[in-house]
Amino acid sequence: MQTDEQRIEQLKALTRQQLVLLGEDAEREGLQKTPLRVARAMLDLTRGYNEDPHAVLNSARFREDYQHMVIVRDIQFYSLCEHHMLPFYGRAHVAYIPNGYITGLSKIARVVDIYARRLQVQERLTLQIKECIQQALNPLGVMVVVEAQHMCMQMRGVEKSGSITTTSDFSGAFNQAKTREEFLELIARNNPLS
């Protein structure tokens, strides 16, 4: 396996080559450090490949006899579309109904971040978050809603600024329409803390 330093050197070379192919002078003062900056940014934007989301959830898994909905909403995330490697960003809302175990609330947000910090499509991101929580905690049900803006749609192609894509996935108790509706109603409310 390559070290980060080796990966940075290879990414720098690729970025420099891109600059030249685009017609730029890679030695120009403003671009001299660009390959290094891009290499470091790419490693940071894809750091989710180096983290185990199941281990994160299990690191703060506690026995608790609570069997009602736990919701962590408005989890901000940033990701890169795997089709164009342009950003998409937005909010994830996650709910689960414990079945003997809960996890630290910040761990839910970390799971979202780990999967978002990979080359992604929004549909897979939604599914991966749901499946990870289902597998790690074995709750009575999980539901995830992701709302995002995609730069590949806003700054190129159809150029539709402000468009929002919403995806959802659910399991267990959320297969019941009433439970799903309760979750959707709760995440639609204005935040009383702001």
Helix content: 40-55%
Order of strands side by side in the largest beta sheet? Answer: 5-2-3-6-7
Q: Which shape, going by the Cα principal axes? A: elongated
Terminal Cα span:
46 Å
Q: Tell me, rounded to a whole number, the average pLDDT.
A: 95
Give the SSE string.
HHHEEEEHEHEHEH
* Quaternary form: single chain
Largest sheet: 5 strands, mixed
Characterization of the model:
Helix 1 crosses helix 2 and helix 4 packs antiparallel against helix 5 (122-137). This protein has a 5-stranded mixed β-sheet with strand order 5-2-3-6-7, sandwiched between helices. Helix content is 41%, strand content 25%. A hairpin with a 5-residue loop joins strand 2 (70-81) and strand 3. The protein has 194 residues and is of the alpha+beta class. The chain is elongated. The chain has helices at 4-21, 34-45, 53-58, 105-116, 122-137, 151-154, 177-188; strands at residues 61-63, 70-81, 87-97, 101-103, 119-120, 141-150, 165-172. The chain contains 7 helices and 7 strands. The longest helix is centred in the first third of the chain and has 18 residues, at 4-21.
